[in-house]
Predict the structure.
Amino acid sequence: ETGVTQTPRHLVMGMTNKKSLKCEQHLGHNAMYWYKQSAKKPLELMFVYSLEERVENNSVPSRFSPECPNSSHLFLHLHTLQPEDSALYLCASSQEAGTGGYEQYFGPGTRLTVT
Amino acid sequence: GQNIDQPTEMTATEGAIVQINCTYQTSGFNGLFWYQQHAGEAPTFLSYNVLDGLEEKGRFSSFLSRSKGYSYLLLKELQMKDSASYLCAVMDSNYQLIWGAGTKLIIKP
């Protein structure tokens, strides 16, 4: 595997379900990110981890819970979601966070539909 | 507030040149990125500008004017595979990326 991988690629869940999104990066990066992408809207940064420590939490509802067990893996735990949470969830990694010049590498995303 | 503006959609002809503009108002500036995103795929990095001027990379060039809060992405010799969304993002004083909504570029034969 190379780059950034995400599973599952598609997920349909009811509002009472609990599910998790998984991201893995094979680039040796120290920073990982979760973004939400809705149609015709800018990417919304949700969480940033640097060396497994959360450094940013952009006012995200508590029904989204991130976990970073090591610098290669990132999870997003979902529970009691709302229909407006339906979107593409993108994971990204970069060499470092909190400094300029490093581009982010994105995974293919998980298309989430909440019914 | 912080704001990134870019056109929603543009159309161009195969073989031609197109310029996609991006204007920004952010709290601080630590560089501007351009990404390409094909439908249903991940964004991929195209360019990074932190100093004023033009950066050329093959058929793609990116220009930055910090005093004007302005950048453009120039695509030459357009190919059908260039049909995609192009995302402009600015790194602010907290080193967070602030993203534009993207410009959907349609290439016609």
Notes: Residues 29 and 95 of chain A are 4 Å apart (CA to CA). Chain A touches chain B at residues 4, 40-43, 45, 48, 56, 90, 97-101, 103-109 (CB under 8 Å).
